[in-house]
Amino acid sequence: MSQPAWVTIAATVAGRRHRRQQVAGQDVLRTAVIAERWLVVALADGAGSAPRGGLGADLATRAALGTMARHCADRERRGSWTAAREALAEALQAARRALEEEAAREGHPPGHLATTLLVVLAAPEGVAAAQIGDGAVVHGNAREEEWACLTRPMAGEYLNETVFLTSEGALDRAQIEHREQPVRELAVFSDGLQMLALDMTKAAPHPPFFRPMFAWLARAGDPVQAGRELQAFLSSPRVTERTDDDVSLCLARWTG
Predict the structure, then answer these.
(1) Cβ distance 152 to 167 under 8 Å?
(2) Average pLDDT for residues 36-57, to the nearest whole number?
(3) Half-sphere exposure of 217 (CA within 13 A, CB side)
(4) How crowded is residue 215: how many other Cβ atoms within 10 Å of its Cβ?
(5) Structural domains of the chain, with CATH
(6) Are 37 and 252 contacting, i.e. CB atoms less than 8 angstroms apart?
(7) Residue 107: which region, alpha, beta or left (left: phi > 0; alpha: psi -120 to 50)?
(8) Distance (Å, rounded) from C-alpha 136 to C-alpha 199?
């Protein structure tokens, strides 16, 4: 019998707008499994209005992932969800600091590297997340086919205003949430998928989206081929006809 483990499939696809302009997408998605049972996900969406938003997303996810990796390597802290929330706050701070330092090197204001940021720490017995900006984290138990939002898209003061990591007061307004309950399925996605994955009237998971996605994940074999299939889905008309933004999705399943 195989050992319990996280099965994780992730993909990012540039939106139609970026493909038309022949420029790279500005979503950056990173994942890591640490000490076998701790799953860390960092997802950032560089601001389209920011000249260096893509670089901001890259730097932010690197800094956040590094902070959470150090937390997971600490045997005394990693079992505490209070400590996990503290580590997530530290990850947001480290990411913002990385953007400020890069902006200072380039001689530009930090807003030139504006990006959202979503950081997740999951274990079989719980999940915690920190979020600034759009996107969401959804978790559930495979046996019950019920899913819940841990974090939700974060609106600014004005209609259609996005809060970025470099926005004034962003760290004070961050969502930091956790749930101490069995986690068998997890989804982390950027705002390009919000209209498909969420019932926006309730800011709740849309079961017709997640049911087939997690059923597919349970059957997935070779992770490389599964990654190609997920990328093909994100590039399909079902997604691209609903959004011209970059789309990123990480699906994870605990096999224990």
Answers:
(1) no
(2) 94
(3) 23
(4) 12
(5) 6-254 (3.60.40.10)
(6) no
(7) left
(8) 12
Chain segment 63-92, per-residue pLDDT in tens: 999 999 999 999 888 889 999 999 999 999
Q: Which residue has the tokens 């640490």?
A: 34
Residue 122's DSSP bridge partners are 39, 127
Q: 203-215 pLDDT, tens per residue?
A: 789 999 999 999 9
Query: DSSP labels for 45-109?
Result: EB-TTSTTHHHHHHHHHHHHHHHHHHHHH-TTTTT-HHHHHHHHHHHHHHHHHHHHHHHHHHTS-
pLDDT range class, residue 18, cuts 50, 70, 90: low
What pTM was computed for the model? 0.92
Q: Which helix (H) or strand (E) holds 110?
A: none
Contact in structure between 78 and 35 (CB atoms under 8 Å): yes
Q: Are residues 209 and 249 in contact, defined by beta-carbon separation less than 8 angstroms? A: no
pLDDT at residue 1 greater than cutoff 50: no
| Neighbour order of strands in the sheet with 27-34 | 27-34, 38-45, 117-123, 126-132, 175-179
Distance of CA 106 to the CA centre of its chain: 27
Q: Which two tokens stand for residue 225?
A: 């081929």
Distance from C-alpha of 103 to C-alpha of 92, rounded to nearest angstrom: 17
Task: Note whether 108 and 52 are within 8 A (CB).
Answer: yes
- What is the reported pLDDT for 75? 85
CB 177 within 8 A of CB 136: no
β-pair partners for 146: 141
- The single-letter DSSP state of residue 231 is H
